[in-house]
Amino acid sequence: MIRMMKMVRIQVLLLVLPVFGWAGQIPDTGQTKCYDNSVEIPCPSPGEMFHGQDAQYDGPARSYTKLGQNGVELPDTATQQGGEWIMTRDNVTGLIWEIKTDDGLINDKDNTYTWYDSDSTTNGGYAGLPGEGTDTEDFINALNDAVFGGYSDWRMPTIKELASLVNSSVFISGPTIDTEWFPHTMPFYYWSSTTRVENTGHAWRLFFDDGQVGCYLKSYRCHVRGVRAGH
Predict the structure, then answer these.
(1) Does position 32 have pLDDT exceeding 70, yes or no?
(2) Which residue from 54, 122, 138, 195 lies 20 to 30 Å from 79 (Cα-Cα)?
(3) What is d(CA 202, CA 200) in angstroms, rounded to the nearest whole number?
């Protein structure tokens, strides 16, 4: 129950964490339940205690489009077989995400990385832990070098962008994401590009098992999902 209550706070986090150049809308969180300080309650009326929770406000409805090579739009029935479907566009935020595979290649679902960004203008003051093909910069560079999907402007998502994928309505069945649009998502931690201001040795990450946002040492290995701006 405590984990469910923490998820309600995600919408607040989305409003206060750094955005770094992204000003898109945020899709509805999918939160449908209300809570007091300890248990679930009927959603309160205006003027009652605990009124105004996430579940009482509707954001833009979630909407996604499957994309193939060079961003060609595909029907909802498209599959990953033969590399037909390789990206998903969020029609609310306009962001395009690479989708994971289960084939041992560049964007395999099981790959994890330490956090590393050699650019002093974006790493928050501490570059993190480099590796040999095992850090986040290596992964993003590999996507861009391969011109994945026909594009070479892939990057790490900010924590706000990453949290926009959380669908709290699927918390019980998990992972907390629309898996029909984002297959092979692991119920584990995914790095964002956002460094923790109070401790630059940490970066923000999202736990897709329950949708919680938190931060941890950049030397820790987490999953990564590449993102690019739509046009």
Answers:
(1) no
(2) 138
(3) 5
Residue 25 has pLDDT above 70, yes or no: yes
* Rounded Cα–Cα distance for residues 62 and 201 (Å): 34
The residue among 109, 192, 197, 111 whose CA lies nearest residue 157 is: 192
ω before 175 within 30° of 0 (cis)?
Answer: yes
Q: Strands (DSSP E) along 12-136, which ranges?
A: 34-35, 40-41, 64-67, 87-90, 95-98
The backbone region for 125, taken as left when phi is positive above 0, alpha when psi lies in -120 to 50, beta otherwise, is left
For 96-111, letters b (16+ CB in 10 Å) and e give bbbbbbeeeeebebeb
pLDDT, one tens digit per residue, over 111-136 is 999 999 999 999 999 999 999 999 99
Asked if residues 222 and 192 have their Cβ atoms less than 8 Å apart, the reply is no
As given in the structure block, the two tokens for residue 87 are 């990206």
Tell how strand 34-35 and strand 202-207 pair up.
unpaired
Q: Are strands 189-195 and 95-98 parallel, antiparallel or unpaired?
A: unpaired
